[in-house]
Fold these 3 entries.
Entry 1:
Amino acid sequence: MTAKTPSPAPVTAAALVADLAALGIQLEADGERLRFRPCEKVTPDLAAKLRTHKAALLAMLAPNPPSPPTPALAEGWFRVGAAAPQREHFAYDPETKTHPGWWDYLYELHNRGLAVVKGKVVKEM
């Protein structure tokens, strides 16, 4: 009886990007094309893996689409005297551990010469 050799673990797109980075190869999406440099470091085996995982790599490397406007930025939320939303009304981003929409709301208030005081929208002095 001959012993079976274990089959290699399947390569994922994320693992491939990590491998390329470890080799000093930069990879980027350019529309529907993958661009990498320096070209001379990409072996035929790596090129085959890039072709195999092209769709997943393009999805990973594509710029993030603009997020839809936060519903809290409706005009009614900027009326003087209106109750200001709580931070929890905005989507939480676990990566940054913040509520980015909240900061967008406060920034927009500031641009309009408004502020939040004791939970109410007021004119800045």
Note: The two ends are 87 Å apart (CA to CA).
Entry 2:
Amino acid sequence: MELQAKEIEALAEKLNLSKDEMLRDSLKVFLEKKLREIKTEIFKIRMKYGVSSVEEFEGRYKKGEIEEKDTWQDLQKLDHLEFKKDELEKALGEL
């Protein structure tokens, strides 16, 4: 669904909000939803390997406490998810 500027303005007026306020609040809700999804994925990977951070995962990986086979993908995914989490939290802090 593609909203046009006129439709956004009409909806904002109908809700007695400024267009900017409505867009900012909508963006905040969207970013918070994405952040929850990412935190859920992070939690799943951490629980799967019993680690609390990428650094701990990597340390246990290097010590041989976590087998290399099929785990490196989860390590990379966790690292990427933590980066995305940080970026989303930064964006939310700027709103």
Note: The CA atoms of residues 28 and 92 lie 7 Å apart.
Entry 3:
Amino acid sequence: MNVVLWPFVALWRLIAAIVGLTGRLIAVIVGLVLLIVGIILTVTIVGAVVGIPLIALGLLLIARGLF
């Protein structure tokens, strides 16, 4: 079961490191920017491959920065 959850744990630790380096407010702002860029890329069908992960990363950064 640990192997299945490893990518999520690694992503959460990466986000925690970004928050630790930049601070909470900057992490929320960067998360919001990534979220907006991801939404704009997702509008174009070709950019959806990159846009959807950017949206997820932006949401996780915002969540980590707020909580």
Note: Residues 26-67 form one domain.
